[in-house]
Amino acid sequence: MSQAAANLSARADELERRMSQELDRLMVKSVLFVSGEHDPTKPLPLPAQDEGGRTRYFCMGPDPRLAPMPERPTLLDFFKYRFGPAAHLLQSAALARKAGHEEKVVLACLLHDIGNIGFIRADHGYWGAQLLEPYVDEEVSWAIRAHQVLRFYPDEAVGYSYPARYIELFGADYKPEPHIERAYRRIRDHKWYMTARLITVNDIYSFDPNAVVSMDEFVDIIGRNFRQPEEGLGFDDSPSAHMWRTINWPNRFL
Ligand SMILES: [Fe+2]
Ligand SMILES: [Fe+2]
Q1: In this structure, what CATH number is given to the domain that contains residue 148?
Q2: Reported pTM
Q3: What is the 3-state secondary structure (H, E, C) of 136-164?
Q4: Is there a single domain that holds both residue 91 and residue 134?
Q5: What average pLDDT does range 146-162 have in this prediction?
Q6: Which ligand is nearest the CA of 144, by number?
Q7: Are 91 and 145 members of one domain?
Q8: Quick one: three-class SS letters along 164-199?
């Protein structure tokens, strides 16, 4: 073999070694991912780094089991590659649009549950609002945060009753906790109350599995009302960029 060919072959071997090492990174779950199944006050055992005389590294970037994300991911990329099914959001937004509501209400309906489908379920309205805050009108993120609380309180004047679905899901005796009651009173008196209320009015609790609404229908509204950062969500140094990065790379060691 000539020297050049030998160099090339050594380079190819090195590349292959690096690639298999990348695919072979050790994954560790955050305490939050396993809390409950695992007692969070007990140490979470880390997988052994050395096996059969070779060292394995922990994941410090993308998880190779997940679909690769573009370098500068957009909101739509997150819907496509990281969020769970969005039929509920699309149907809610479609209902709001059909009712003739303004774009910010349609956008709020479209994004109101991204906490659930992409991040953390508990307190999803708060997490969703925090994720979105740097990129949308203040009224939109305020309303998304408030819907967390308003869902539990009827407003018969606008046709919103306590959802029958909640009785099925949480039992008839579930009563919102005092911090929710306090938040409700503040929201009730707020100038943007009705924006948040409209999220609950258009929130479809028993959504139709056959009604197909496409994200394409909302691309324009997103374009006009969501400030997509040039660097990509997660890499733009906004106050919530780290949250988008965590959704992108959920199993990064640190
Ligand atoms: Fe919700
Ligand atoms: Fe919802």
Answers
A1: 1.10.3210
A2: 0.90
A3: CCHHHHHHHHHHHHHCCCCEHHHCECCCH
A4: yes
A5: 96
A6: 1
A7: yes
A8: HHHHHHHCCCCCCCHHHHHHHHHHHCCCCHHHHHHH
* 115: in domain: yes
Domain range for 177: 75-248
One domain, residues 194 and 94 = yes
68 within a domain of the structure (yes/no): no
From the CA of 202, which ligand is nearest? 2
Residues 56-73: tens digit of each pLDDT: 999 999 999 999 999 999
Distance 139 CA to ligand 1 centre (A): 17
188 C-alpha to center of ligand 1: Å?
18
The one-letter amino acid at 205: Y
- Taking the centre of ligand 2 as the mean of its atom positions, its distance from the CA of residue 160, in whole angstroms, is 14
Residue 15 pLDDT > 90:
no
Give the model confidence (pLDDT) of 117-126 as tens digits: 999 999 999 9
Answer yes or no: do 99 and 186 share one domain: yes
